[in-house]
Amino acid sequence: MESTRLFQWLKLNLLVIVLAFLKVEGGFAPITIVQSAVAKGAVCLDGSPPAYNFQKGYGTGINSWLVHMEGGGWCNNVTSCLARKTTRLGSSTKMGDTLAFSGILNDKKQFNPDFYNWNRIKIRYCDGASFTGDVEAVNRETKLHFRGARIFEAVMEDLLAKGMKNAQNAIISGCSAGGLTSLLHCDRFRALLPRGAKVKCISDAGYFINVKDISGAQTIERYFNQIVTTHGSTKNLPRSCTSRLKPELCFFPQYFVSQITTPIFFVNSEIDSWQIKHILAPNAADWHECKLDIKKCTSAQLNQIQGFRAEFLKAITPIGNSPSKGMFLDSCYNHCQTELQEFWLYGGSPLLAKTPIAKAVADWFYDRSPFHQIDCPYPCNPTCNNQVLGVPQEDDPEL
Length: 399
Fold this sequence. Notes:
InterPro entries: AB_hydrolase_fold (IPR029058), PAE/NOTUM (IPR004963). Its EC number is 3.1.1.-. By secondary structure, the chain is of the alpha/beta class. It has twelve helices and twelve strands.
């Protein structure tokens, strides 16, 4: 009898959770496979065609386009790219037929009041180098294709043909490696669209900084060098940067962001959880519990995290304080906030100046008011919902 009641209780609560999820989540967007891209050599790591998920705009949003770049780390050598090749981050054959849209992609007005009826696209990430690679040769044994830059061009051509060429409003955004993509391709995206269109860029958790790890090693700089070399990315990085600095440095926003002319909004944690795990303390075994849950950090570890915050704030100074550059930098221990409804706009969403991310971004985009807020140090912000991380996923690879 007790086991039956327990089963019924679990069943009822599971139903409540599912119904709550469905209420908040946006609709499911079907996948589009860009078959025409194959003839241009614009293919995923495994040679399959690129893809995106698309919900068509309507009403006042029919000529507005939000192009969101999927994140998911990078692959820095043949071994890591081969492992990635067999997943959705390396092959369109591993992607599902539909994808749930949430946060900035949500199609419900109450959860995404300013962009819900736009044409909303999520470009799937299957090249492993933030859409910068372009190596003509394909190794006969590995059959790896490094063609991310070609994917970007081919998908944009497809979207322009489907109506984006008539855009009156347009945004390129992205999370993590996709947030870096939105910066690297920001001005390119603007150049594709009508001269009179309002075009802006949003980078979410894409401001990766170049600092030494706690051992004094240049782990992230070495890793970015391997990405750029493996994928042949140099020619697709900002020339204003590569003409002055080593190519791998031009994968770090701090070295090229001041040269971007298109307006940009930055959403980022000052103590981004991915950067703490992989840039600050990538190989420290005694940091395991701390990296998973910041509440388990020792006072010494918290001091080092605060030191990272200071380095992060120093690295963002090239952004400046122009009204064209928006900024929502919180002190919440998380990574990526625009795609997740609980961070974008929901009860309990993080606030800066009493403003959620969704309103800050929209007010900036529509020129209703500028937004340039930097949070106080962790743990000062009571609206933070700090993530407790689990086992690394395929989009959170170890360096």
